[in-house]
Structure formats: C-alpha cells, structure tokens
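Progress report, Aim 2. The chain analyzed during this reporting quarter is listed below.
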Amino acid sequence: MARSTFDLRSALLAATAVLALTGAPQAVLAQSPRGPDIIADVAAQVIDSVVNISATTTATEQRAVPMPQLPPGSPFQDFFEEFFKNGPGGEGPQQGRPQRRSNSLGSGFVIDASGIVITNAHVIGEANDVTVIFADGRKLKAEIVGKDTKVDLAVLRVKPDKPLKAVKFGDSEKTRIGQWVMAIGNPFGLGGSVSAGIISARNRDISDQSYGQYIQTDAAINKGNSGGPLFDMNGDVIGINTAILSPSGGSIGIGFAVPSALARPIIDQLLQFGETRRGWLGVRIQNVDESIAESLGLKEPKGALVAGVDDKGPSKPAGIEPGDVILKFDGKDVKDSKDLPRIVGQTAVGKEVDVLLLRKGKEVTKQVKLGRLEEGEKVAKASATQGEADKPTIKKALGLDLSPITDEAKRRFSIKDNVKGVLVSRVDPNSPAADKRIQVGDIIVEVQQEAVTTPDAVTKRVDALKKEGKKSALFLIANAQGDVRFVALSLE
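Predicted structure tokens for the chain:
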C-alpha cells in the first residue's frame, strides 16, 4: 500500500514537471475538470443578491363568442341574452367584462442596498404588478423606475425594512474568450439555480437592434434566467442574461448577456431620468461591401455608408451628405455599419463630436452637435434630389430599361412626389442588376455620387465611367416611398 501511494505521488510530480517544461498553464493543475473550485465560494458570496421577478399583467378580456343574431320575437331570445350576459366570455350584470391575468417569471439582482434591482425589460413587459422575491422568501412590491426595450433592460425599486445584499458591476471590456463565468437565476421557476461555463464569444449581434453587442456563454441559461446576472470569478456582474439560441426552448449551451459596459450608462440614465437619452446623428446607413469599397476607392470594406440624411437631423447642417463613408465618430473607429448606432447611442445628447468621412476619395472631418433619438422614431427619410424635367425616352444600361418618371408612372408604382430620378421600367433577369435585387419601379437617384434625372444622364455617366477604366459604378437606388440604398454594379 505504501509503495502504491509512493508511485502515485511520483507520477503526479512527474506530470507536473512535464507540464512545466511544456509551458502548460499552472492554473490548470489547480482546477477540477469541471471548472475552478472557486465557483462554490463565489456562489456563496453573491447568491443572496439574486432575486426572482414575478410580473402580472391584468387586461380586460374580449368577448370570445359573439351574440347570435336572432329574428325578432324568437322564443330563444331570452335564453341567449341570459347566457351571453352571464356565461363564459359574457358580461355580468354588474361585474363588467372578466379580467384576464397573465404571469411571467424571470430573474434579477440587487445593485444598491437601498432597493435598486435590475432585470430585463421583457421580463416585466407591460405588467401592472411586479413582485421581487428574495432568497430568504421575502416578497416586496416593486416600482418600475424605467426600462429600455432596445437593449432589454429595466430598473426596479423596492422599499426593504433593512439593507439588501448588493453586488457591483465589473468591466466587461476586460473579459476574455474562454474565461470562466457563472449564471444565477430562476430557471423554470426553480429559483436560486447556479450554472457555470465560459465566455464563448464577445461582441455578438443577435438581432436587428444595433444598440448592443452581446456576450455569448455556454453556462446553462434557460427560460426564467432572463434578467439574472452573469458573474466573473471575482463575483462582479459582467453581463445581464437576456436570450438563448435554442430550437427546443431549453439550454443547448448558447446564451447571451448584455455586457456591463453597455448596461451601466443605460441604467444610470433610467435612474436619473426614468428613460434613456441616446445621441442621434440623423442619417440612414448601410454596410460597405467589397464591390462598394472598390467603387469608392477603399482598400478594404470598412465604415458606414451614408444612404440618406434626415432634413431635420443634426447631420444636415453639419454638411454630411449621402455617399459619405463614416470612418470615425468621436475618435472611435467605425469598422462596419453596425458599430455606428451603438457608438452614437452611447454618446451624450448635445455633445459636439468630430466625424471623419471619406468623400470622393478624400478624408474630410465634420463637426456635429448630436440631437436626441426619440422613442419610436422611424428611419429618417432620404433627401430628395432636385432635377430638371424628364424627357419621354427609354434608354438601356447594364441590363436596365430606363424611363422618366411620368404622372402615369407615379400612379402605377405609387411613387411619392418628392422622389426624383430615373425610373427602372425593366430588369434583365440575367443581369448584375437583377442579382443586386434592383426591381421594376425602383428609381435611380445617383450614379457614382452624381444626381441623374433623365435616362440619357444615366447612360452618359455609365459610359464616362467605363472610359475612365472603372470596374464598377455606385448607384443610389430609391423605392417608391423614397427610402434609398447604395448598389455597386459591375461595368464589365
């Protein structure tokens, strides 16, 4: 037995020596195969700050079955009136319509001992009754301080009779792919459940809402975990669990959390104002792909291409124009179009910022004083390009039949009066234009950043670009409503 123990000890020492010689991390030896032993210590330290959220929405239920139409004097008239007044889905004589109650369960966590609780906006929804349930069983009614549906955050306030256990935020910008994290929440209503995993990825875009880039983790996150904290191994909150990717509704190891660096300024605004106050630039943008980059003279696809400028937005007086490529905003690089709304949204309203643009091959800096992005604001409409009267001629270019915008065309395609340019009346299905989804009824507003108002102007511009040796041309295309996009078409 002694020899066996000695042999085992010798084997461990030998393994340690081999790992040291090969440069393997020493931290591996201090961890169990399922994660660092410190997880249990961190869980014990923070679990009392994690809460369950119960949100109840009460709404008047509509009558499910309509009262049948009976002929006057029918012997069944009294029976049906009585049934539909007092039966299922009807209105009682004094009670009014029945109230339908829907409940949702989620998670949250305390960030201030005085009673400030953070959760997801979708957990509380439009609830008119929110209860916070603590680890010791206490239940406190919560006031909704404010919520932000764009990044899915909500701030609640409760009034405890003694200070609560609170946690603090860490810096999500310092997190690394592969580092250990821990989620605590209320999956399937079980409450106080701990799961652990690693950060699988950072800066994930998980929806068309371009205001956030999320942390991806394989720590088990299920229905009910929403709004709960994602901790690092220091016990600091580096994310708020908000969504999962799963065909079954259960955890498959792909969960997403709002990074603390994104959440903290939003929470501060909700606490101060009860609402968010995001910066607003007043431009409509699109991504720069390889063909657009080539047509603009960019060495690589980068930046955000301005497709339209709101007439009432801050960019208009600052001199930003459609066709400009925004490369930097307030000193921050804009790698692609999704970066810009996030950077602008996190910038203070009223701040004057420098915007570095690429315009016709040259870098230009414009100074813009940011406005405020109002809730429910629709996409800014593109500026209408004024032009000369159209001539009733049809031209062909790059697989397109081009016509002037006549009164008949306006009626046929429901083209708004402020939309100016050249009408696409036919598209060759085998042309590059068809591949780029240009359709009959679209309007060509610009070719290579020059306004066009006649079919002749389009063909002449295309011919000139070919003579210059250009391989592609940048078209500004509008739909009937005036919404625009840039399309690069091959000239070869």
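The chain has eleven helices and 29 strands. The longest strand covers residues 99-112. These observations will guide the mutagenesis work planned for the next reporting period.
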